[in-house]
Design goal:
Glutaredoxin; 14 helices; alpha+beta; eight-stranded mixed β-sheet
């Protein structure tokens, strides 16, 4: 039985993609983490399968992204069909020179397995069949009562992070709930194994002839597995609909009579769009589905949960190391509540378009779909799920407001955009140089700026990176800095950089300050603000 006297810095409840991502992030920053989960197996069936570019970028920082991409099915293109014809297609990553695709499809059990193995390699304390049955939330710590096959024990933690899913037992234990919209509709998932020659794209049908008056979604997955979602309507019998003899005709109607397939998993789901009022209650924090839940259209569930952990990990780490006030952790709640509300709006609008609740709404939807084949204005209104994109913390109190005008692809508070660079004459990517601490990127600095840069390099939480245009680093460039070359000119274009400009990035790769001609005292003040000292 584990010791009940030790107080752990962080206990994560839940060993799904969100909980494991958080634990790995904290462990890489040097924090001791305990992960408890009442189960001892990975998820069954595909469940969350669409992982967005931002999530892959985060997993790259956690050293698991390459493995996910190698196994997953990469895709950028989606197609929308109305009845028996294609009315629109879109490319989610139309611009070249990005390391990662817009999305990969990967069954959740693979995702969990890769994260679990990384957590094991880091020596994280992973405890399966350890079920939280009570929580005592004190001012300076939280005490969890844990039930195991060998008996009960108490686990003390400075901070507890609940990543225990949409039904979150921990949320109920502290007397809280989520509020929002419950959608009265049922959807059938059929994971089928077959040899097929469809392209790696997202196909969505409205009112197809093989499944009239409803919608259908088709995705490819690794291992010749295809995920098919059928809208059934609220009146569908969930017990009857998952019987293979009832599912097979639906799948056969989509694929054609000549196609042979086997079932790997069949399930029915309903969904809600809701969130908790707050994500922090004393020493207990909530992340992922335990804090907010969205419809599956747009792949915003697991992706937003991993982005929660990306926001939270560095803030917990700095506070636990005594380098940031507790108020920094409260900015996790405010920033990720904003992101949750954004996801909820997109998710609710998509669901309303996909499943119109009145004749007028259906008429509007069908008219938009007819017009979309020929008219750009109608395509902007087609909503088969606004696919997951990272939220921008433009109103965050951690940002230093712009005093200079910038264009480019990244707004203040936005997440960094990748770009190809060279490091020691070898190909590299910008995001691979971000995330360990705060990073100040200086573009083509002048000789007059070098003394200030050397002073800033001494800041304990700051790494200074120098980026030079062209193929070669100037011979007069200073030593002691990470130096990169922007050989394609993409970094300069995406950040609207001019010689002497500086960009300050947080450990979660969000841009928090920028200047055309910075001064050392301004950078120090922005760094202090971004650590929560000035809020």
């Amino acid at each position: 039985m584990p010791s009940t006297t030790q107080q752990h810095p962080v206990v994560v409840v839940g060993a799904g993609p969100v909980g494991l991502s958080l634990a790995i992030d904290l462990a890489l920053r040097g924090q001791a983490v305990v992960v408890v989960d009442e189960g001892n197996t990975f998820s069954v069936g595909s469940r969350a399968i669409c992982f967005a570019k931002r999530t892959l970028d985060i997993w790259d920082r956690l050293d698991v992204g390459e493995r996910m991409v190698d196994k997953g099915v990469s895709w950028n293109v989606g197609k929308v069909f109305f009845r028996d014809e294609e009315v629109w297609n879109f490319n989610l990553l139309p611009e070249p020179l990005h390391r990662r695709p817009a999305f990969i499809n990967l069954q959740q059990y693979y995702c969990e397995g890769y994260l679990y193995e990384k957590a094991q390699a880091l020596g994280i304390d992973l405890r399966a069949k350890h079920k939280v049955i009570a929580v005592d939330n004190q001012r300076e710590y939280s005490a969890l009562t844990i039930e195991t096959p060998e008996g009960e024990y108490t686990l003390h933690a400075d901070w507890v992070v609940a990543c225990d899913g949409a039904r979150s037992p921990l949320r109920g234990m502290i007397g809280e709930n989520s509020q929002g919209r419950i959608f009265q509709d049922r959807f059938l998932i059929a994971d089928v194994r077959m040899k097929a020659h469809y392209p790696a794209e997202r196909w969505f049908w409205f009112d197809p002839p093989f499944h009239p008056n409803q919608s259908v979604l088709l995705h490819s997955q690794p291992d010749d597995v295809w995920r098919i979602d059928f809208q059934l309507g609220w009146d569908a019998d969930p017990i009857e609909e998952i019987k293979e003899e009832n599912v097979r005709p639906r799948v056969q109607a989509l694929l054609g009579k000549e196609v042979d397939f086997d079932f790997e998993w069949i399930s029915i789901y309903t969904f809600a769009c809701e969130r908790m009022d707050k994500f922090r209650f004393g020493r207990v924090l909530f992340a992922g589905d335990s804090a907010h839940r969205v419809s599956p259209f747009g792949a915003r569930g697991a992706n937003s949960g991993v982005q929660d952990t990306d926001n939270l990990a560095w803030k917990l780490d700095l506070h636990l190391r005594g380098l940031a006030p507790e108020s920094l952790i409260d900015t996790y709640c405010s920033e990720r509540r904003f992101a949750a509300d954004e996801n909820l709006r997109h998710s609710s609008r998509a669901t309303d378009f996909i499943t119109p609740k009145s004749d007028i709404s259906k008429l509007f939807r069908d008219t938009v779909l007819r017009l979309a084949k020929e008219h750009d204005f109608a395509r902007s209104m087609v909503n088969s799920g606004r696919l997951s994109t990272p939220s921008s913390y433009s109103e965050s109190p951690l940002n230093t407001p712009d005093v200079d005008a910038f264009a480019g692809a990244v707004c203040l508070g936005g997440v960094a955009v990748d770009a190809p660079l060279r490091h020691h004459s070898e190909p590299s990517w910008w995001l691979s140089h971000l995330g360990k601490s705060f990073t100040l990127a200086m573009f083509n600095p002048s000789d007059a700026q070098l003394p200030a840069l050397k002073e800033l390099q001494q800041q304990p939480l700051l790494e200074v990176v120098l980026i030079y245009p062209g193929q070669d680093i100037p011979t007069h460039a200073p030593s002691g800095f990470t130096m990169l070359t922007d050989h394609f000119g993409m970094w300069q274009q995406r950040y609207d950089a001019q010689s002497g400009a500086a960009f300050l990035f947080r450990p979660d790769q969000h841009l928090t300050a920028r200047w055309r001609q910075p001064k050392a005292d301004l950078v120090k003040a922005a760094l202090s603000r971004a650590c929560g000292h000035l809020i």
